[in-house]
Predict the structure.
Amino acid sequence: QVQLIESGGGLVQAGGSLRLSCAASGRTFSSYAMGWFRQAPGKEREFVAAIRRRGDSTYYADSVKGRFTISRDNAKNTVYLQMNSLQPEDTAVYYCAARTVVLTTTSKWDYWGQGTQVTVSS
């Protein structure tokens, strides 16, 4: 069982930056690939970024490539999402998730956090 708690969301102006964190409970964090997802009002949840267990490979949605960076610190049981050049269309609730093998789809992730709101004003 893995519990995930996101933090770092907030209100930012277009062009600004935020860093989201996702802290995981348990001693097996390094056994899980981690992903970030988002859901905007009235839209389906979508994949944003993912990282393998050792952090040696990362994956991004085309919409965030070059602006967002996913990273992890296995010693701190934490995964991060650095978001730069934020735009109003990035406004959403952002979720982190865990599963043993990395995927770039929204389904089949085993554990989910409660989400953190990111709002980008124009």
Q: What stands out?
A: Residues 38 and 94 are 4 Å apart (CA to CA). The chain has no helices and eleven strands. The radius of gyration is 13 Å.
